[in-house]
Structures are given as structure tokens and as C-alpha cells.
Amino acid sequence: MKSLFIYCAGGAGKEVCDTAELIQETEKKWKEICFIDDTYDDSKGENTFYGKNVLTYEYFKNSIDKNDAEVIIATGEPLSRKKLYEKVERDGYDFANVICPNAIVSPTAKIGKGVVIQSFCHIASNAVVEDNVFLNFGCIVGHDAIIKRNTFFSVHVSAVGGCVVGENCFFGIGAMAKDHISIGDWCIVGMSAVITKNIESEKIITGIPAKVIKDNIDKKVFK
Fold this sequence. Notes:
Blueprint: E1 3-7, H1 11-27, E2 33-36, E3 47-49, E4 52-55, H2 57-63, E5 69-73, H3 78-90, E6 94-95, E7 98-99, E8 104-105, E9 110-111, E10 116-117, E11 122-123, E12 128-129, E13 134-135, E14 140-141, E15 146-147, E16 152-153, E17 158-159, E18 164-165, E19 170-171, E20 176-177, E21 182-183, E22 188-189, E23 194-195, E24 203-206, E25 211-215
Parallel strand pairs: 1-2, 1-5, 2-4, 5-6, 7-10, 8-11, 9-12, 10-13, 11-14, 12-15, 13-16, 14-17, 15-18, 16-19, 17-20, 18-21, 19-22, 20-23, 22-24
Antiparallel strand pairs: 3-4, 24-25
């Protein structure tokens, strides 16, 4: 049995930990749950966060066998999600999926690896959720929709039937994407925005209906 390592000891990490603990209650899926965070100093001895042990990634890599660990990325910044995922993948570690027991996932949906699906999410028929996607509480992914790698959905985001969301996107709380539209890579969608037409890559969008307000030049959500 492997241990689960949640990469990033912060708010999103706490939420992922809570969901992992819910899974543990029925499945006993992991030997233990720990955190990885590079801001901690291993030289000071044992570190803890949210009642769990915390390791720096360097210490983790040098002390935890690849056969004994699964990793999940727990940050809302798509650029960081991408970098951390690629580092862990390059070093040969497996990724866990942390899917809340009360989420509804269609048997025809395809779920990648390293995916977080929080409580009360609904993933509909033939939807695709690619690697390293984070769907926060109450999100909807409609039938035949595609959510691409490293994308983060905040609470109560909806991307409905046939919608395609590109890689490395960030959706603010309550944002919605109309059916059968395409949103390019590296887009940032503001809170409660309603997207009704196709959006090119590397745009920042807000409003009802949503409009492009500027380019996403530095590819960062949290400045």
C-alpha cells in the first residue's frame, strides 16, 4: 500500500487532505497521508501541517521509494501546477486521483491522473478530464466536454455540453462556459463570468457576457 503525498501545504492542500480522509474511511486506500512543501526546512527536524508530516521535495525524492508513494498537486496556480507535475513525473513517481465519494462521475467519462474532484461535482457522459486538473466544490463538467491538463476550476464552475477548456486555465468562483465553445490555453476567467463565444489562448476574461480585457502575458493568476 502506498502513501499519499499532497504537494503544497496550503489552503487547497487542507481541502484535498479532507477529501483524502473521507476516501480513507471507506477504502483504506493509502498507508498514510503526508504533505510536500518546499518552504519547509528539513534541518529543523520533523515538520507538520494540518496534523500531517511535511517533507521538502528534495528530502522526499531522496528518502521515499517510487513504489511507496503517490503524489497529488494542491495549488490553484496553473503555472505552478504544470511545473510541479512535470517535476514529479520526470522523477518517476505515480500520481493519485483524489475524488470525493459524493462526486458523480459518469461511467463513460475519462479521468486522467493526478486529478482532484471535490464534493458535489458532476462529471457527465463522455466528458474528459485530463491529467492534473483540479475541480473544486460543486463544479459541473457537461457531456462530451473536455478539460485539459493543469486547469483549475474554483468553486461552482460549469463547463457544459461539448465545451473544450484548454491547458493551464484558471476559472474563478461561479464562472460558466456555454455549450460547444472553445477556450484556449492559459486563459484566466474572472468570478461569475459567463463565456458565450470562443476565446483565444492567453486571454483574461470577465463579465456577463464575458469579454477579453487583456492578454495573459505573464501567465500568473496570483501576483
